[in-house]
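To close the section, here is one more complete example, presented without commentary so you can practise reading it yourself. The ligand is uridine-5'-diphosphate-xylopyranose.
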Amino acid sequence: MSNYLGRDGELAEIGIDDVDVSPLEISADGDGRSADLAMARRTSLRDLERPPVAMRLGIFGTGYAGLITSVCLAQLGHTVTAMDTDAGIVARLSQGIATIHEPGLPELLRANLEAGRLRFTTQAEDAIAGSDIIFVCVGTPPRSDGRADLCQVEEVARTIAHQLDGYKLIVEKSTVPARTARWITWTIRRLAGPQHEFDVASNPEFLREGSAVRDFMHPDRIVIGADSGRARSLLLDLYKPRFDCPIVVTSVTTAEFIKQTANAFLAAKISFINVMADLCDALGVDVRTVAQSIGMDPRIGADFLNAGLGFGGACLPKDLSALITVAEENGVDIGMLKEVQRINTARADRLLAKIERALWIVRHKVVAVLGVAFKANTDDIRGAPSLTVVPWLHDAGANLRIYDPAAMPRLQALYPPDDRLVYAESAMDAARDANALVILTDWDEFRCLDLDRLRSVMRSPIIIDGRNLFTPTQLEAAGFEYYSLGRGDVTPRSDQQRGTA
Ligand code: UDX
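Output:
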Protein backbone atom coordinates (compact mmCIF):
# COMPACT_ATOMS: atom_id res chain seq x y z
CA MET A 1 0.00 0.00 0.00
CA SER A 2 1.19 3.50 -0.73
CA ASN A 3 0.01 7.07 -1.10
CA TYR A 4 -1.34 8.73 -4.22
CA LEU A 5 -3.17 11.94 -4.84
CA GLY A 6 -6.93 11.38 -4.85
CA ARG A 7 -9.41 13.04 -7.21
CA ASP A 8 -10.02 15.89 -4.81
CA GLY A 9 -6.34 16.49 -4.27
CA GLU A 10 -6.14 14.75 -0.89
CA LEU A 11 -3.69 11.96 -0.25
CA ALA A 12 -5.30 8.55 -0.24
CA GLU A 13 -3.98 5.11 0.65
CA ILE A 14 -4.20 2.72 -2.26
CA GLY A 15 -2.76 -0.48 -3.47
CA ILE A 16 -2.28 -1.24 -7.13
CA ASP A 17 -5.54 -3.18 -7.27
CA ASP A 18 -7.46 -0.07 -6.25
CA VAL A 19 -6.84 1.55 -9.62
CA ASP A 20 -7.76 -1.58 -11.58
CA VAL A 21 -11.09 -0.44 -12.99
CA SER A 22 -13.18 -0.98 -16.06
CA PRO A 23 -11.97 1.09 -19.01
CA LEU A 24 -13.82 2.21 -22.11
CA GLU A 25 -11.95 1.74 -25.32
CA ILE A 26 -12.60 3.77 -28.44
CA SER A 27 -11.14 2.30 -31.58
CA ALA A 28 -10.15 4.29 -34.61
CA ASP A 29 -9.03 2.86 -37.86
CA GLY A 30 -5.34 2.40 -38.52
CA ASP A 31 -5.38 4.88 -41.39
CA GLY A 32 -5.51 7.66 -38.87
CA ARG A 33 -9.08 8.80 -39.48
CA SER A 34 -10.63 10.22 -36.33
CA ALA A 35 -12.09 7.90 -33.74
CA ASP A 36 -15.79 7.31 -34.28
CA LEU A 37 -17.46 7.59 -30.90
CA ALA A 38 -20.19 5.28 -32.14
CA MET A 39 -17.54 2.58 -32.19
CA ALA A 40 -16.88 2.90 -28.49
CA ARG A 41 -17.25 -0.44 -26.80
CA ARG A 42 -17.07 -1.69 -23.26
CA THR A 43 -14.17 -3.92 -22.43
CA SER A 44 -15.18 -7.55 -22.45
CA LEU A 45 -15.56 -9.47 -19.20
CA ARG A 46 -12.49 -11.49 -20.14
CA ASP A 47 -10.41 -8.27 -20.35
CA LEU A 48 -11.58 -7.21 -16.92
CA GLU A 49 -10.63 -10.51 -15.39
CA ARG A 50 -7.13 -10.21 -16.80
CA PRO A 51 -4.77 -9.21 -13.97
CA PRO A 52 -2.80 -5.99 -14.50
CA VAL A 53 0.60 -6.73 -15.98
CA ALA A 54 3.63 -5.16 -14.25
CA MET A 55 6.10 -4.10 -16.93
CA ARG A 56 9.71 -2.94 -17.01
CA LEU A 57 9.83 0.59 -18.36
CA GLY A 58 12.68 2.88 -19.40
CA ILE A 59 12.11 6.64 -19.45
CA PHE A 60 14.39 9.10 -21.23
CA GLY A 61 14.26 12.57 -19.68
CA THR A 62 13.28 13.57 -16.15
CA GLY A 63 11.90 17.02 -16.92
CA TYR A 64 8.26 17.76 -16.28
CA ALA A 65 6.64 15.06 -18.40
CA GLY A 66 9.37 12.50 -17.76
CA LEU A 67 9.39 12.81 -13.99
CA ILE A 68 5.61 12.74 -13.57
CA THR A 69 5.35 9.81 -16.01
CA SER A 70 8.11 7.89 -14.20
CA VAL A 71 6.69 8.38 -10.73
CA CYS A 72 3.08 7.68 -11.70
CA LEU A 73 3.87 4.57 -13.77
CA ALA A 74 5.88 3.25 -10.82
CA GLN A 75 2.90 4.03 -8.60
CA LEU A 76 0.77 1.88 -10.91
CA GLY A 77 3.07 -1.06 -10.15
CA HIS A 78 5.51 -0.97 -13.06
CA THR A 79 9.27 -1.08 -12.58
CA VAL A 80 10.68 2.17 -13.89
CA THR A 81 14.24 3.22 -14.72
CA ALA A 82 14.43 6.90 -15.58
CA MET A 83 17.50 8.25 -17.35
CA ASP A 84 18.76 11.82 -17.49
CA THR A 85 22.12 13.16 -18.66
CA ASP A 86 22.15 15.70 -15.80
CA ALA A 87 24.00 13.96 -12.95
CA GLY A 88 22.87 16.59 -10.43
CA ILE A 89 19.19 15.98 -11.20
CA VAL A 90 19.68 12.21 -11.05
CA ALA A 91 21.46 12.50 -7.68
CA ARG A 92 18.70 14.63 -6.17
CA LEU A 93 15.88 12.47 -7.50
CA SER A 94 17.66 9.33 -6.27
CA GLN A 95 17.65 10.86 -2.77
CA GLY A 96 13.90 11.48 -3.03
CA ILE A 97 14.25 15.23 -3.57
CA ALA A 98 11.68 16.49 -6.11
CA THR A 99 13.32 18.78 -8.68
CA ILE A 100 10.07 20.56 -9.59
CA HIS A 101 7.26 21.98 -7.48
CA GLU A 102 4.26 19.75 -8.11
CA PRO A 103 1.55 18.83 -5.59
CA GLY A 104 1.69 15.12 -4.64
CA LEU A 105 5.03 14.50 -6.37
CA PRO A 106 7.39 14.34 -3.35
CA GLU A 107 5.21 11.73 -1.62
CA LEU A 108 4.98 9.47 -4.67
CA LEU A 109 8.67 9.89 -5.46
CA ARG A 110 9.76 8.77 -2.00
CA ALA A 111 7.20 5.95 -1.76
CA ASN A 112 8.22 4.39 -5.07
CA LEU A 113 11.96 4.76 -4.46
CA GLU A 114 11.44 2.98 -1.13
CA ALA A 115 9.32 0.28 -2.78
CA GLY A 116 12.17 -0.36 -5.24
CA ARG A 117 9.92 0.24 -8.26
CA LEU A 118 11.70 3.44 -9.32
CA ARG A 119 15.32 4.34 -9.92
CA PHE A 120 17.18 7.13 -11.66
CA THR A 121 20.35 6.82 -13.71
CA THR A 122 22.67 8.73 -16.02
CA GLN A 123 23.38 5.55 -18.01
CA ALA A 124 21.22 5.03 -21.10
CA GLU A 125 21.84 1.28 -21.08
CA ASP A 126 20.18 0.98 -17.64
CA ALA A 127 16.96 2.38 -19.11
CA ILE A 128 17.15 0.27 -22.27
CA ALA A 129 18.37 -3.14 -21.15
CA GLY A 130 15.51 -5.42 -20.28
CA SER A 131 12.82 -2.76 -20.75
CA ASP A 132 9.54 -3.72 -22.41
CA ILE A 133 8.69 -0.13 -23.30
CA ILE A 134 10.92 2.96 -23.58
CA PHE A 135 9.25 6.36 -23.20
CA VAL A 136 10.85 9.38 -24.86
CA CYS A 137 10.22 12.36 -22.58
CA VAL A 138 13.12 14.63 -23.50
CA GLY A 139 12.70 18.34 -24.18
CA THR A 140 11.48 19.64 -27.53
CA PRO A 141 12.14 23.37 -27.03
CA PRO A 142 11.22 25.98 -29.65
CA ARG A 143 13.85 26.99 -32.21
CA SER A 144 14.25 30.61 -33.23
CA ASP A 145 12.14 29.92 -36.36
CA GLY A 146 9.26 28.55 -34.24
CA ARG A 147 9.79 24.89 -35.15
CA ALA A 148 10.28 22.31 -32.40
CA ASP A 149 13.93 21.47 -31.79
CA LEU A 150 14.04 17.67 -32.05
CA CYS A 151 17.80 17.24 -31.48
CA GLN A 152 17.27 15.49 -28.12
CA VAL A 153 14.66 13.17 -29.63
CA GLU A 154 17.08 12.18 -32.38
CA GLU A 155 19.85 11.64 -29.82
CA VAL A 156 17.63 9.22 -27.86
CA ALA A 157 16.71 7.38 -31.07
CA ARG A 158 20.41 6.99 -31.95
CA THR A 159 21.24 5.78 -28.43
CA ILE A 160 18.45 3.20 -28.47
CA ALA A 161 19.47 2.03 -31.96
CA HIS A 162 22.97 1.17 -30.73
CA GLN A 163 21.69 -0.78 -27.71
CA LEU A 164 18.68 -2.76 -28.92
CA ASP A 165 18.64 -6.08 -27.07
CA GLY A 166 15.47 -7.67 -28.42
CA TYR A 167 12.06 -6.24 -29.34
CA LYS A 168 11.44 -2.75 -27.95
CA LEU A 169 8.43 -0.50 -28.06
CA ILE A 170 9.61 3.12 -28.21
CA VAL A 171 6.89 5.58 -27.21
CA GLU A 172 6.83 9.33 -27.79
CA LYS A 173 5.52 11.19 -24.72
CA SER A 174 7.08 14.58 -25.45
CA THR A 175 4.91 16.76 -27.66
CA VAL A 176 6.32 16.45 -31.17
CA PRO A 177 5.11 17.55 -34.60
CA ALA A 178 3.05 15.02 -36.52
CA ARG A 179 5.22 12.48 -38.36
CA THR A 180 8.14 12.68 -35.91
CA ALA A 181 7.70 8.93 -35.24
CA ARG A 182 8.62 8.26 -38.86
CA TRP A 183 11.96 10.01 -38.36
CA ILE A 184 12.58 8.06 -35.14
CA THR A 185 11.79 4.81 -36.97
CA TRP A 186 14.08 5.64 -39.91
CA THR A 187 16.89 6.73 -37.57
CA ILE A 188 16.78 3.51 -35.56
CA ARG A 189 16.33 1.32 -38.64
CA ARG A 190 19.30 2.88 -40.42
CA LEU A 191 21.60 2.52 -37.41
CA ALA A 192 20.38 -0.79 -35.99
CA GLY A 193 19.98 -2.63 -39.29
CA PRO A 194 17.10 -4.82 -40.45
CA GLN A 195 17.60 -7.67 -37.95
CA HIS A 196 16.25 -5.81 -34.89
CA GLU A 197 12.56 -5.73 -34.08
CA PHE A 198 11.02 -2.55 -32.70
CA ASP A 199 7.99 -0.29 -33.02
CA VAL A 200 7.55 3.43 -32.47
CA ALA A 201 4.25 4.57 -30.95
CA SER A 202 2.76 7.81 -29.64
CA ASN A 203 1.11 8.19 -26.25
CA PRO A 204 0.79 11.94 -25.66
CA GLU A 205 0.42 13.36 -22.18
CA PHE A 206 -2.21 15.95 -21.33
CA LEU A 207 -0.81 16.84 -17.92
CA ARG A 208 -1.23 20.33 -16.54
CA GLU A 209 1.52 21.68 -14.34
CA GLY A 210 0.20 22.14 -10.84
CA SER A 211 -2.17 19.17 -11.11
CA ALA A 212 -0.02 16.78 -13.14
CA VAL A 213 -0.10 13.86 -10.67
CA ARG A 214 -3.87 14.04 -10.36
CA ASP A 215 -4.23 14.40 -14.15
CA PHE A 216 -2.07 11.30 -14.70
CA MET A 217 -3.99 9.23 -12.17
CA HIS A 218 -7.42 10.41 -13.38
CA PRO A 219 -7.09 11.06 -17.11
CA ASP A 220 -10.03 12.33 -19.22
CA ARG A 221 -8.82 10.04 -22.00
CA ILE A 222 -5.76 8.05 -22.96
CA VAL A 223 -4.56 8.32 -26.56
CA ILE A 224 -2.62 5.41 -28.00
CA GLY A 225 -1.13 5.85 -31.46
CA ALA A 226 0.26 2.58 -32.72
CA ASP A 227 0.65 1.17 -36.22
CA SER A 228 1.25 -2.47 -35.23
CA GLY A 229 -0.87 -4.91 -33.26
CA ARG A 230 2.06 -5.70 -30.96
CA ALA A 231 2.60 -2.05 -30.04
CA ARG A 232 -1.15 -1.50 -29.56
CA SER A 233 -1.59 -4.44 -27.22
CA LEU A 234 1.51 -3.57 -25.15
CA LEU A 235 0.18 -0.06 -24.52
CA LEU A 236 -3.33 -1.34 -23.83
CA ASP A 237 -1.86 -3.80 -21.30
CA LEU A 238 0.01 -0.91 -19.69
CA TYR A 239 -3.08 1.22 -19.13
CA LYS A 240 -6.30 -0.63 -19.79
CA PRO A 241 -6.74 -2.62 -16.59
CA ARG A 242 -5.87 0.43 -14.51
CA PHE A 243 -7.96 3.35 -15.76
CA ASP A 244 -11.64 4.17 -16.00
CA CYS A 245 -11.59 6.49 -18.99
CA PRO A 246 -11.97 6.32 -22.76
CA ILE A 247 -8.91 4.96 -24.53
CA VAL A 248 -8.56 6.26 -28.09
CA VAL A 249 -6.61 3.81 -30.22
CA THR A 250 -5.44 5.32 -33.47
CA SER A 251 -2.48 5.65 -35.83
CA VAL A 252 0.80 7.13 -34.64
CA THR A 253 0.50 10.27 -36.79
CA THR A 254 -3.07 10.90 -35.63
CA ALA A 255 -2.03 10.59 -31.98
CA GLU A 256 0.80 13.08 -32.52
CA PHE A 257 -1.62 15.47 -34.19
CA ILE A 258 -4.30 15.07 -31.50
CA LYS A 259 -1.88 16.47 -28.94
CA GLN A 260 -0.91 19.45 -31.10
CA THR A 261 -4.55 20.16 -31.90
CA ALA A 262 -5.61 19.99 -28.24
CA ASN A 263 -3.06 22.59 -27.18
CA ALA A 264 -3.85 24.84 -30.15
CA PHE A 265 -7.55 24.73 -29.29
CA LEU A 266 -6.91 25.58 -25.63
CA ALA A 267 -4.72 28.50 -26.73
CA ALA A 268 -7.43 29.71 -29.13
CA LYS A 269 -10.06 29.57 -26.38
CA ILE A 270 -7.92 31.74 -24.10
CA SER A 271 -7.14 34.31 -26.82
CA PHE A 272 -10.83 34.44 -27.75
CA ILE A 273 -11.93 35.31 -24.21
CA ASN A 274 -9.09 37.82 -23.91
CA VAL A 275 -10.30 39.73 -26.97
CA MET A 276 -13.80 39.69 -25.48
CA ALA A 277 -12.26 40.98 -22.22
CA ASP A 278 -10.89 44.03 -24.03
CA LEU A 279 -14.33 44.64 -25.49
CA CYS A 280 -15.89 44.16 -22.04
CA ASP A 281 -13.54 46.85 -20.69
CA ALA A 282 -14.73 49.21 -23.42
CA LEU A 283 -18.40 48.41 -22.87
CA GLY A 284 -18.31 48.38 -19.05
CA VAL A 285 -19.25 44.69 -18.92
CA ASP A 286 -17.71 42.05 -16.61
CA VAL A 287 -15.95 39.37 -18.69
CA ARG A 288 -16.26 36.80 -15.90
CA THR A 289 -20.05 36.98 -15.99
CA VAL A 290 -19.94 36.67 -19.78
CA ALA A 291 -17.52 33.71 -19.59
CA GLN A 292 -19.56 31.91 -16.94
CA SER A 293 -22.75 32.33 -18.94
CA ILE A 294 -21.38 31.15 -22.27
CA GLY A 295 -19.52 28.32 -20.50
CA MET A 296 -22.84 26.85 -19.34
CA ASP A 297 -23.44 25.82 -22.95
CA PRO A 298 -21.89 22.34 -23.19
CA ARG A 299 -20.89 23.10 -26.77
CA ILE A 300 -18.60 25.82 -25.39
CA GLY A 301 -17.60 24.41 -21.99
CA ALA A 302 -16.73 26.34 -18.84
CA ASP A 303 -12.98 25.67 -18.68
CA PHE A 304 -10.24 27.83 -20.16
CA LEU A 305 -12.35 30.97 -20.26
CA ASN A 306 -10.42 32.91 -17.62
CA ALA A 307 -9.42 36.20 -19.19
CA GLY A 308 -6.24 37.93 -18.12
CA LEU A 309 -2.58 37.85 -19.06
CA GLY A 310 -2.98 34.96 -21.47
CA PHE A 311 -1.25 31.63 -21.80
CA GLY A 312 2.37 30.97 -20.88
CA GLY A 313 4.30 27.93 -19.74
CA ALA A 314 6.47 25.46 -21.57
CA CYS A 315 3.76 23.91 -23.73
CA LEU A 316 0.97 26.06 -25.17
CA PRO A 317 3.17 28.81 -26.70
CA LYS A 318 5.74 26.31 -28.00
CA ASP A 319 3.23 23.82 -29.39
CA LEU A 320 1.27 26.61 -31.09
CA SER A 321 4.42 27.88 -32.82
CA ALA A 322 5.35 24.37 -33.91
CA LEU A 323 1.87 23.72 -35.32
CA ILE A 324 1.95 26.99 -37.25
CA THR A 325 5.25 26.02 -38.88
CA VAL A 326 3.92 22.54 -39.73
CA ALA A 327 0.90 24.17 -41.42
CA GLU A 328 3.10 26.60 -43.33
CA GLU A 329 5.38 23.80 -44.50
CA ASN A 330 2.31 22.01 -45.80
CA GLY A 331 0.86 25.08 -47.51
CA VAL A 332 -2.15 25.31 -45.17
CA ASP A 333 -3.49 28.79 -44.29
CA ILE A 334 -3.03 28.98 -40.51
CA GLY A 335 -3.79 32.71 -40.14
CA MET A 336 -6.32 32.03 -37.40
CA LEU A 337 -3.72 30.49 -35.09
CA LYS A 338 -1.23 33.25 -35.88
CA GLU A 339 -3.85 35.70 -34.62
CA VAL A 340 -4.25 33.60 -31.45
CA GLN A 341 -0.50 33.97 -30.95
CA ARG A 342 -0.50 37.73 -31.68
CA ILE A 343 -3.36 38.37 -29.25
CA ASN A 344 -1.51 36.45 -26.56
CA THR A 345 1.75 38.31 -27.04
CA ALA A 346 -0.10 41.61 -26.64
CA ARG A 347 -1.56 40.71 -23.21
CA ALA A 348 1.47 41.89 -21.23
CA ASP A 349 1.39 45.23 -23.11
CA ARG A 350 -2.23 45.63 -22.12
CA LEU A 351 -1.29 45.18 -18.45
CA LEU A 352 1.64 47.58 -18.75
CA ALA A 353 -0.74 50.19 -20.21
CA LYS A 354 -3.02 49.67 -17.19
CA ILE A 355 -0.04 50.14 -14.85
CA GLU A 356 0.76 53.46 -16.55
CA ARG A 357 -2.91 54.39 -16.46
CA ALA A 358 -2.91 53.80 -12.71
CA LEU A 359 0.48 55.33 -11.83
CA TRP A 360 1.08 57.82 -14.66
CA ILE A 361 4.86 58.08 -14.00
CA VAL A 362 6.40 54.74 -13.04
CA ARG A 363 9.88 56.06 -12.21
CA HIS A 364 10.69 56.01 -8.47
CA LYS A 365 7.33 54.40 -7.64
CA VAL A 366 7.39 51.34 -5.37
CA VAL A 367 5.63 48.52 -7.21
CA ALA A 368 4.83 45.21 -5.50
CA VAL A 369 4.69 42.28 -7.94
CA LEU A 370 2.74 39.26 -6.74
CA GLY A 371 3.39 36.07 -8.70
CA VAL A 372 6.19 35.24 -11.08
CA ALA A 373 5.23 31.64 -12.00
CA PHE A 374 3.37 31.27 -15.32
CA LYS A 375 0.39 29.95 -13.34
CA ALA A 376 -0.47 28.86 -9.80
CA ASN A 377 0.88 25.73 -8.06
CA THR A 378 4.11 25.57 -10.02
CA ASP A 379 7.59 27.06 -9.76
CA ASP A 380 7.88 27.18 -13.57
CA ILE A 381 8.51 30.62 -15.06
CA ARG A 382 8.91 29.54 -18.69
CA GLY A 383 6.74 31.80 -20.86
CA ALA A 384 5.57 33.66 -17.74
CA PRO A 385 4.32 37.27 -18.03
CA SER A 386 6.74 38.16 -15.21
CA LEU A 387 9.58 37.77 -17.74
CA THR A 388 8.13 40.73 -19.67
CA VAL A 389 6.61 42.80 -16.85
CA VAL A 390 9.49 42.71 -14.34
CA PRO A 391 12.24 43.94 -16.74
CA TRP A 392 9.88 46.56 -18.20
CA LEU A 393 9.10 47.98 -14.74
CA HIS A 394 12.77 47.84 -13.78
CA ASP A 395 13.83 49.65 -16.98
CA ALA A 396 11.09 52.22 -16.38
CA GLY A 397 12.75 53.09 -13.05
CA ALA A 398 10.33 51.46 -10.59
CA ASN A 399 11.46 50.13 -7.21
CA LEU A 400 10.30 46.52 -7.32
CA ARG A 401 9.26 44.31 -4.41
CA ILE A 402 8.58 40.82 -5.73
CA TYR A 403 6.92 37.80 -4.10
CA ASP A 404 5.89 34.33 -5.31
CA PRO A 405 5.20 31.31 -3.06
CA ALA A 406 7.31 28.91 -5.17
CA ALA A 407 8.98 30.45 -8.21
CA MET A 408 11.12 33.28 -6.81
CA PRO A 409 14.46 31.39 -6.94
CA ARG A 410 13.98 30.85 -10.67
CA LEU A 411 13.37 34.55 -11.36
CA GLN A 412 16.17 35.50 -8.98
CA ALA A 413 18.59 33.44 -11.09
CA LEU A 414 17.74 35.69 -14.06
CA TYR A 415 17.28 38.97 -12.19
CA PRO A 416 19.40 39.06 -9.01
CA PRO A 417 18.38 41.53 -6.29
CA ASP A 418 19.74 45.08 -6.61
CA ASP A 419 19.03 48.46 -5.04
CA ARG A 420 15.70 48.65 -6.96
CA LEU A 421 14.73 44.98 -6.94
CA VAL A 422 13.91 43.17 -3.70
CA TYR A 423 12.56 39.64 -3.22
CA ALA A 424 10.06 39.74 -0.34
CA GLU A 425 9.20 37.17 2.34
CA SER A 426 5.44 37.32 1.83
CA ALA A 427 2.76 39.11 -0.15
CA MET A 428 2.22 41.56 2.72
CA ASP A 429 5.95 42.18 2.96
CA ALA A 430 6.08 42.95 -0.77
CA ALA A 431 3.12 45.33 -0.46
CA ARG A 432 4.64 47.38 2.37
CA ASP A 433 4.89 51.06 1.32
CA ALA A 434 3.99 50.19 -2.28
CA ASN A 435 2.41 52.77 -4.56
CA ALA A 436 0.76 49.93 -6.46
CA LEU A 437 0.43 46.17 -6.37
CA VAL A 438 0.51 44.17 -9.61
CA ILE A 439 -0.83 40.58 -9.70
CA LEU A 440 0.68 38.31 -12.36
CA THR A 441 -0.19 34.78 -11.13
CA ASP A 442 -3.46 33.24 -9.93
CA TRP A 443 -2.18 31.78 -6.64
CA ASP A 444 -5.00 31.12 -4.14
CA GLU A 445 -2.80 32.78 -1.52
CA PHE A 446 -3.34 36.10 -3.28
CA ARG A 447 -7.11 35.60 -3.57
CA CYS A 448 -7.23 35.15 0.22
CA LEU A 449 -5.28 38.30 1.13
CA ASP A 450 -6.69 40.31 4.05
CA LEU A 451 -7.70 43.41 2.08
CA ASP A 452 -8.00 45.70 5.12
CA ARG A 453 -4.49 44.83 6.21
CA LEU A 454 -3.22 45.14 2.66
CA ARG A 455 -4.65 48.63 2.32
CA SER A 456 -3.13 49.64 5.65
CA VAL A 457 0.43 48.58 4.69
CA MET A 458 0.40 50.12 1.18
CA ARG A 459 1.38 53.73 0.51
CA SER A 460 -1.49 54.09 -1.95
CA PRO A 461 -4.21 51.43 -2.33
CA ILE A 462 -3.92 50.61 -6.03
CA ILE A 463 -4.17 47.07 -7.45
CA ILE A 464 -3.53 46.17 -11.09
CA ASP A 465 -4.82 42.61 -11.41
CA GLY A 466 -3.56 40.64 -14.42
CA ARG A 467 -5.52 37.54 -13.37
CA ASN A 468 -8.89 39.03 -12.41
CA LEU A 469 -8.72 37.49 -8.92
CA PHE A 470 -11.02 40.06 -7.33
CA THR A 471 -14.26 41.76 -8.30
CA PRO A 472 -14.34 45.52 -8.84
CA THR A 473 -17.18 45.94 -6.33
CA GLN A 474 -15.28 43.97 -3.68
CA LEU A 475 -12.16 46.10 -4.05
CA GLU A 476 -14.07 49.34 -4.36
CA ALA A 477 -15.79 48.53 -1.07
CA ALA A 478 -12.39 47.75 0.48
CA GLY A 479 -11.14 51.21 -0.55
CA PHE A 480 -8.88 50.29 -3.47
CA GLU A 481 -8.42 51.65 -6.94
CA TYR A 482 -8.68 48.51 -9.06
CA TYR A 483 -7.55 47.86 -12.63
CA SER A 484 -8.26 44.46 -14.15
CA LEU A 485 -8.39 42.94 -17.64
CA GLY A 486 -12.02 42.87 -18.72
CA ARG A 487 -14.01 43.88 -15.65
CA GLY A 488 -14.02 47.67 -15.80
CA ASP A 489 -11.67 49.77 -13.67
CA VAL A 490 -12.30 51.38 -10.28
CA THR A 491 -10.48 54.69 -10.76
CA PRO A 492 -10.26 57.95 -8.80
CA ARG A 493 -12.63 59.39 -11.42
CA SER A 494 -15.32 56.92 -10.52
CA ASP A 495 -14.77 57.93 -6.87
CA GLN A 496 -15.54 61.51 -7.89
CA GLN A 497 -18.65 60.37 -9.71
CA ARG A 498 -19.75 58.71 -6.46
CA GLY A 499 -18.97 61.97 -4.65
CA THR A 500 -16.36 60.41 -2.37
CA ALA A 501 -13.19 62.04 -3.76
C1 UDX B 1 -0.92 22.64 -20.93
C2 UDX B 1 -2.11 21.72 -21.29
O1 UDX B 1 -3.25 22.13 -20.55
C3 UDX B 1 -1.75 20.27 -21.00
O2 UDX B 1 -2.82 19.43 -21.43
C4 UDX B 1 -0.49 19.92 -21.77
O3 UDX B 1 -0.10 18.61 -21.54
C5 UDX B 1 0.63 20.85 -21.36
O4 UDX B 1 0.24 22.20 -21.60
P1 UDX B 1 0.07 23.68 -18.70
O5 UDX B 1 1.05 24.38 -19.58
O6 UDX B 1 0.55 23.02 -17.47
O7 UDX B 1 -0.73 22.57 -19.52
O8 UDX B 1 -0.97 24.79 -18.22
P2 UDX B 1 -2.50 25.11 -18.48
O9 UDX B 1 -3.27 24.82 -17.26
O10 UDX B 1 -2.98 24.52 -19.74
O11 UDX B 1 -2.41 26.69 -18.64
C6 UDX B 1 -1.64 27.25 -19.70
C7 UDX B 1 -1.63 28.75 -19.61
O12 UDX B 1 -2.90 29.27 -19.91
C8 UDX B 1 -1.26 29.31 -18.24
O13 UDX B 1 -0.41 30.41 -18.42
C9 UDX B 1 -2.58 29.75 -17.66
O14 UDX B 1 -2.43 30.82 -16.75
C10 UDX B 1 -3.31 30.18 -18.91
N1 UDX B 1 -4.77 30.10 -18.81
C11 UDX B 1 -5.37 28.91 -18.59
C12 UDX B 1 -5.53 31.26 -18.97
O15 UDX B 1 -4.99 32.35 -19.18
N2 UDX B 1 -6.88 31.16 -18.90
C13 UDX B 1 -7.53 29.98 -18.69
O16 UDX B 1 -8.76 29.98 -18.64
C14 UDX B 1 -6.75 28.82 -18.52
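Once you have examined the C-alpha coordinates, check your reading against these statements. The first strand starts at residue 2 and ends at 5. The pocket of uridine-5'-diphosphate-xylopyranose is lined by residues 205-209, 263, 266, 270, 304-306, 308, 310-313, 315-316, 374-375 (CB under 6 Å).
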